[in-house]
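Observation: inputs received (chain + coenzyme A).
Thought: call the complex predictor directly.
Action: predict_structure
Action Input:
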Amino acid sequence: MPRLATTLHTQRLRLEPFDARHLDGLNAMNRMPEVVRFLGGQPETRDQTASVITRVQRCWATWGTSWWAFIETSSGQVAGAGCIQYLRRDAAAPEDLESLVGKPLEIGWRLHPDFWRQGLASEAARGMAAFAFERFPIPELLAVRHPDNVESGRVMDRLGMHQRGLEPWYGTTVATHVISRAEWLRTRSGA
Ligand SMILES: CC(C)(COP(=O)(O)OP(=O)(O)OC[C@H]1O[C@@H](n2cnc3c(N)ncnc32)[C@H](O)[C@@H]1OP(=O)(O)O)[C@@H](O)C(=O)NCCC(=O)NCCS
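Observation:
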């Protein structure tokens, strides 16, 4: 039976599981060179964004987690996107999605530049991390970034993650950050 795709709510955002209605907004973001600078460097075509949405819908149905579009509630615009998903060592995504179940879960984010520097990535990150720890019996949550992606590293810091070092994920070497369940619980209780 397909798993449920879950919508999340934060103070300024609605996090909606990817859907065809997000195509224009997601492509407007993913075709910008400054957005993909540390994410392979290739702006996304409209067809590629459409394929990603289809794949993400399969991920939601298989795993019960994947990518959300961040909708700014005041304007209804797609402000960004983020994920809780299984990490993999290979660059290419496998056809068999079940084969990734049991790998570490990672959290990820990106924003359209019009929405940078407003705290929205960190706000969404807190909501997605809560979803990950509440929905899955994981001991820890990981995040990976290009070592030069300082802005993303600051979002990881604000979430309470610490850097574990350089590790091989996605067919390359990335700075890997982690927050344990105990650390996340302490963050939540304000301790
Ligand atoms: C990574 C990325 C999402 C970070 O975006 P960001 O806007 O810097 O991060 P946040 O949304 O958390 O905003 C935090 C900033 O907003 C500021 N801010 C302004 N108003 C704020 C508010 N009301 N609440 C909180 N922070 C606020 C903070 O001071 C902080 O600035 P600082 O880092 O200079 O201290 C963005 O650079 C991006 O989309 N990059 C391209 C895609 C990418 O590389 N993704 C990550 C791959 S690993």
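Thought: report the result.
Final Answer: The longest helix spans residues 46-63. Residues 8-86+104-189 form a domain with the Aminopeptidase fold (CATH 3.40.630.30).
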